[in-house]
Design a protein that fits this description.
With 84 residues, the chain is mostly helical. It has five helices and no strands.
Length: 84
């Protein structure tokens, strides 16, 4: 699978969520911030995009903190995204 196909699959996972809020937030993050991430941060984001909304939402809204330091960095960036 090439990089373009991987990105398209990630875009699908980010914008076809159970929660509309997650669709909008993850989609916006993918378009604006994801290209600026380093490899470890990109991997952490992919891992989070694979989580179910009920598992990811508490991390995004700050009700729960991740155990992984790199995921914490990505969550900080994600929390600063403003959806248009």
């Amino acid at each position: 699978m090439d990089d373009r196909e991987k990105l398209n699959r990630l875009r699908w996972r980010c914008t076809r969520r159970a929660m509309l809020e997650m669709d909008l937030l993850l989609g916006e993050f993918l378009e604006r911030v994801y290209p600026t991430l380093d490899a470890a941060q990109a991997d952490a984001f992919v891992t989070m995009a694979d989580m179910e909304d009920l598992e990811l939402w508490p991390l995004v809204n700050g009700q729960r903190e991740p155990d992984d330091a790199v995921q914490a960095e990505v969550l900080a960036l994600l929390r600063n995204v403003r959806v248009k």
